[in-house]
Amino acid sequence: MEKRLTNQQIDQLFTFTKKHYVEHYDVQVELVDHLANAIENQLKENPNVLFEEALQTEFKKFGIFGFTGLVEQKQVELHKHYNKMIVNELLKFISIPKVVVTIILYLALFFLLKRTGKLGEIISLAILLLSFIYFMVDGFRFVSKIKKQQKIQGRSWLIQSVAQSVFSLPFIYLTGFGFSLISNFFREDRTSELSVLGLNVFIVFILIHVLTLYIFSAIIKPRFLQSIKETEKRFQFA
Amino acid sequence: MKKQQLYKGSLNTIIMKLLEQHGKMYGYEITQKVKEITQGEMNITEGALYPALHKMEADGFLDVEMDRVDGRIRKYYKLTESGVKETVSRMEELENFVRNMQNIVNPNLKLGY
Above 80 in pLDDT, residue A192? Predict the structure, then answer.
């Protein structure tokens, strides 16, 4: 007769994973089941072994970093996956068929800025600045929405932590980069219009900015929301 | 313990092959299965198995499914469509590797096929 762990012991395992810095419920579940199976196996071979001892033996098998290395690695993998997705989506805009959109946008911006001169530059800078702010606020709202969800459910999923980091890091980077560029434009008391080279650099920057913004809100965000929903659905019966 | 080193590069392929044969499996089951097949010669450590599984999941080669077993929640892994394709190409690679190693280790032995 195989000895099964009691519910109390299972709860103990959950506490054990939490104590070892596994905060996401989906990861906890997998580790608890693994430990439980391994401990039951030990008990089968040696019925006298103590639960605590068996647990320590199994925990050692996870290596010196314990569970933390495992959790971090999983986050890094997922983060990489989403970064790749962002780059791939951006690359689509310089390959057929989407390159057509890029060219049209490019030409439209070029002629618009050329025609309107200094005023056009200032207006587009203002629009950039506003969209930066929108970008930040939107990202902040997304992250806090996730936090709220976690509070209501009393559980957090690993994918949520990845969504939070994907949505905060590029914002810091992009805004930092963008503001330095904008302040560069205003630093020198320029009275003349942009040179042709300057104009082209400016347009490329606007395009990258607009496309990244589009990709983040139209592709990456829904993808995250869907992944979170899928994870919740998987655990619904639990 | 040194011999584990030789298996390391093939860990993902081994996991994929097992999933191809058995449909869906959970982590602990995979470690036990490998032990059973190799009669204890190969031992997948927990510290290697889960990172490998999680990477393949992030890469879209594996899909997961949760199930309630004996009052516990179990996480099963199975191959996705792209995972199945990947398994085929990785198995070919592995077979080539084994063949080449055989030729290097034992050059006089002509395989009869």
Answer: no
Q: How far apart are CA A50 and CA A133, in angstroms?
A: 58
Q: Are A30 and B62 in contact (CB under 8 A)?
A: no
From A9, A32, A33, A7, select the one nearest A22 (Cα to Cα). Answer: A32
Report residue A166 as tokens.
């994907």
B70 touches chain A (CB under 8 A): yes
CB contact under 8 A, B71 and A7: yes
Structure tokens at A18: 């939490």
A4 vs B contacts (CB less than 8 Å): 70
Residues in A touching B55 (Cβ below 8 Å): 73, 77
Helices B46-58 and A66-92 sit at what angle, rounded to 10 degrees?
A: 20
Q: Which domains does chain B have, with CATH numbers?
A: 4-105 (1.10.10.10)
Tokens read off for A184 = 């560069």
> With an 8 Å Cβ cutoff, are B47 and A81 in contact?
no
Least Cα distance to B87 among B76, B79, B97 occurs for B79
List B residues 7-46 in contact with A (Cβ-Cβ < 8 A). 26-29, 32, 45-46
Q: Over range B46-59, report the average pLDDT.
A: 90
Cis bond upstream, residue B107 (ω within 30): no
- Report chain A residues whose CB lies below 8 A from the CB of B44: none
Q: Is A129 left (phi over 0), alpha (psi -120 to 50) or beta?
A: alpha
Full-model pTM: 0.82
- Residue B64 in contact with partner chain A when CB distance is under 8 A: yes
Residue A220 and residue A166 in contact, taking contact as beta carbons nearer than 8 Å: yes
